[in-house]
Amino acid sequence: MTQTATTEATYIGGVWEESKASAYSEIVNPATGEVIARIPLADESVVGRAVEAAAKAYPAWRRTPPQDRIQYLFRFRELLLKRIDDIARTVTLENGKTLAEAKAETQRGIENVEVACGIPTLMQGYNLEDIASGIDEIMIRQPLGVTAAITPFNFPSMIPLWFLPYAIATGNTFILKPSERVPLTAILLTQLLEEAGLPAGVMNLVVGAKPSVDALLHHPDVRAISFVGSTPVAKYIYSEGSAHGKRVQCQGGAKNYVVVMPDADLDMTAKIVSDSAFGCAGQRCLAVSVAVTVGDVKQKFTDAIVERASSIRTGNGLDKDVQMGPVITAQSKSRILQSVEKGLKEGGRVALDGRAGINGNAPHGNFIAPTILTDIDASNPLTSTEIFGPVLTVNSTNTLDDAIEVLSKSAFGNSSAIFTSSGAAARKFRYEVPTGNVGVNIGVAAPMAYFPFSGWKDSFMGVLHGQGKDAIEFYTDKKVVIERWPKEWSRKF
Ligand code: NAD
Description:
Helix content: 25-40%
Mean pLDDT: 96
Oligomer: single chain
Bound molecules: nicotinamide-adenine-dinucleotide
Number of domains: 2
Largest sheet: 7 strands, mixed
Shape: globular
CATH superfamily of the largest domain: Aldehyde Dehydrogenase, Chain A, domain 1
C-alpha cells in the first residue's frame, strides 16, 4: 500500500510550513473510503506562532486604508470565480456532497466576499455637530486586532467565508482553524488569498483538533472568536472564550421543523421539503428534519414526499447524475442508523427505507438513501436531537397552534418553515415561532450574505450573528470622540 504524502496545511506569516507535527489526520473521501490526504495537526506552539504572526501584521494592516484593503478582496473574488470548479471538486472529495451542491455553497461564500468589498461604506461611523454649543461628537469603528474562526465539516468553502472577508476588510488579522475532517478546501482558499497578494500574516491557517482550539481560546492576543459547529462544542467555546476575555459568537446545532398546512400545494411542498431534508445528505444546519402536518393531510403529504424522495439518486457526488452524496464518516452513518432503529423499536413506521444505502454498490462509502419515518412519538430522540443525516420524520397535529407548540419545545432555534396559501397563517407563524430564521413556503431559509445568520436558543450563543451588518459590528469596536475646539485657544488667522 502506498503511503499518502503529507499535505502542507499550516500557513503562518505568509509561509507554508513543512510539518514537524506529532499528530496527523487522514482525510477520507466519504464516498469511497479512500485516504486522499494526510494532514499535520497543529499543537499549541503552532497556534502560538500563528497568533504572533497575525499580531505582527496587524499594525500595518490596520493602517492600510479600507479602500486599499478591499482591493485584495476584489482579486480574491475573481480567483474564487475562476477556480470555482476546482474548489467544488475539493469540497466533494473531502465532504461527499454533490458537485452542484459544492458549487452552490461556494457561490454563497463568494457573496460574503462581495458584501465585505463594501467596507468603506459599511464600516463608517456617525457624528453630530453641536451636541452642545461648539462641541461635536463622532463615532468611529476600529478593528479589534487578531481574530479567529473555528469551522465545521459541512460547508468547507462557505462557512470560512462567513467570517474571513469581514474580519480582514475591517482591518483585523485572521486565523482560520477549519474542521480537521475537511481541511483541503481551506488550504485552497488560503492559496487563493496568497495569490491575491494579501500581505503576510493577515490570513493564517492552522489545522487541528481540540488542542489547537484550546490554544486559540486561551491565547491572550486573540481578541475575537467565531465558531460554527455542534451545540456542546459551541457552549464550551462560548464559555471558555468569554472567560478568557474574548468576544465570541457561536453558531451551534439545530433541529428544524416544517409545518405543512392543509391549504398548502402538497406537490410543490413535497418537492421543496424533500430538497431541504435530503440536500447535502441532510447535513445542513438548516435541513428540515421533522415535518408536522396540520389537519388531515398527513397521508397525502407523506405519499407525495415519499414519491419525490424515492427518485433521488444517491451516490458519489463526483458523478454527474447523482443528487445526494454520502454522510461524512462511517461513525456518522452508524449513529444515524442507530437513531432510526430506536425510533422504529419504539413504535415508528418506515414510509421510505434508505438504510441499505446504495445496495452494496459502494461498500466503503457512507451511504444512507433518503429515509422517511412516521408515527414517531414526541418523546423519541428522533424528534428532539439533531440527526444530521438524510432522515425525515412526519408527524401530525390538529391545529397550527398545536404545531407551533410542538416546535417551540425544541431546545434549538435555528430555523423553521411553514407551507401554506394563507397569509394569516403565515403571519401568525412568523410572529410566534422561536427560531431565528423562518421560511414561508421556503425549505432552506438561509439568509443572504447581507442579512445576519440568525440562530436562536441552543443554535446560537452570543449577541452579534455572522454575516451582514452584524459581522461589521462583531469585528469592530466603537470609539466615541467628543471634541471642543475653542476659538480663543487657536492661533489667529
Ligand atoms: P463539531 O462541533 O464536531 O466541530 C466543529 C469545529 O469544532 C471543528 O473545527 C472541530 O475541530 C472543533 N471541535 C470539535 N470538537 C471539539 C472540542 N471538543 N473542543 C474544541 N473544539 C472542537 O461540528 P461538525 O461535526 O464539524 O459540524 C456539524 C455541526 O455543525 C452540526 O451540529 C451542525 O448543525 C452545526 N452547524 C451549525 C451551523 C449554524 O449556522 N448554526 C452551520 C453549519 C453547521
